[in-house]
Amino acid sequence: MCLVLKTIKTFTNVLYILIFLILFLHKYSNATEIRIGVASNFLMPMNVIKQNFENENKTKIYLSTGPSGSLYSQIINGAPLDIFLSANQDLPKKLENTAKGVKGTRFTYATGKLLLYSTNKDLFDLTFPNIILSEKIKYVGIGNPKYVPYGVAAKEVLKSLKVFNRLEKKIILSKNVNQVFLMNYYGNLDIGFIAKSDFIIKNKKGKVWDIPQDLYSPINQDAVLLKYGEKKPEAKLFLKFLSSNKVRDKLVSLGYTIN
Prior knowledge:
This protein is of the alpha/beta class. It has ten helices and ten strands. The protein is elongated.
């Protein structure tokens, strides 16, 4: 009798485990995933958007981040990304004209703002643009224009002010615009051209100077659906979510302009 009861108890425990596994696997099988390449300057806002989207949908988002130029190269070389969130328009446009992008899906999700930033208190009383030619400045940080759209904008500012050649030996190129901010924050640069979003999200010290928009081209940041995501309804749903009023309002609060 005891043996029978023991056998029934064991069978019951196994049954519970099987039911649990079936329910778990069912839930897991219903969950989907999308992979998104995100420009470095947009990673912090994207983490907020990612969490909100995942909470509202049975979808897991995996992020790859880096300079827009580097992400573009990865996509061209076959990286299995479903969506590309660039820090400019040119690269998503190029992808639309290749087999890697889906025509008609590109749109501007945000427009970035360039600021001049410093934590060197000896410079705080100076005004823009005079600060750029101060003899107190030894190092000027910008993102590498070869890969970083914010670096392109910074170079345009210096050329518009006709000071690029005079400052060229002082310029330190960074792999992304976030690195420019961090190098300034920790005092490794005297001034740097940063994304306004970095200053709003991360800053606890330092000063910024506004840069007139007519000194550089608008930093329109475009999204595009990639071929890997073309047959994923969740990828299309995310792009729709990205353009929603809820997300747009959040991006404005984080230093971006929404047209």
